[in-house]
Amino acid sequence: MKKRAAFTLVECISALIVTSIVVLLIGYAMTSVRTMVKRSLSNTVDWQICLQELESSNHHFVLQHANSKTIFLLEQTSGREFELRALDRLYLRASNGGYVPIFSGIKMDRTVFRQLDDQRVYIKVERDNGQELTGIACFEADK
Hints:
With 143 residues, this protein is α+β, with helices and mostly antiparallel strands. Helices cover 33% and strands 34% of the residues.
């Protein structure tokens, strides 16, 4: 009887095991990439929402002045004064008490405010993961 060239059962099982391992590793890598993209996108989105909230026409904030650690704002509709400060988060503090956190997960001493003109302030924060975020908040003109 003539021997024909063919795969043995051991070779078939070995090929199947190697293929399964490769597919599992590719699936794991794709999941990791998706997770990283989702995280970086959400970090950017929440920063944009923070800036939009500061500029929102619902509040009518007018810039009084800013220094390196605090932005002083006046809400035109109510006449209340607010301070935008940074600790481990950005928060708005009302002059008559109370505060509202508006952006969290930042390093304590890595926030910079710089007044550019009568309406605009440059804001730079560093997140806990080392990501630096910058933006310019443009407040309403004083009437």
